[in-house]
Amino acid sequence: MFRIIIENYLKLFFILTPFFILSTFLSLTSKWTKHDRKALAVKVTIAITITTVILLIAGNAIFKLFGITVDSFRVGAGILLLLSSINLVKGNIETPNTETEDIAVVPLAIPVAVGPATVGTLLVMGAEITKYSEKILLFISLILSIVSLGILLYISNIIEKLLKQKGLNILIKLTGLILSAMSAQMILVGVANFLK
User: Model pTM?
Assistant: First the structure.
């Protein structure tokens, strides 16, 4: 049970692209006070939690509504995840520009943390699991990953001093490499199941 939680936790943590959202968070709040950054970190964490929980719950209903199989969606989500990972590795990511004061939901929660690739992956993960006990374990993993991300944002001032931008860029590229492996696995499983 503990192993399943850890495995899902690691997958979900990297799917949320924590170091990219941290880098974006720091750049968008460069002139903010420590107190304001911490308050924003809490709001972003809540927004991500609500969004991702809805996606996990709605997975099966969405597939039934549109008549899409889990495997076809798995391949599609895998391709989106692969494209996102390539952008992370190459550094071809645009930091969203916003003139609004409330940036917790848009752009930080959506689409920086919960972009198209994350949406697809969460829908697949939610639809794959049918047992109630396994769903509970998945939700525990999701909450743990979001809390970890929230802590990163909450202590962003400390991380910024320790890593600087160069350190964050290295972590972003490592995240991209991990996501590329996960996307390849998703695509291969979807194709293999389709061929059966």
Answer: 0.87
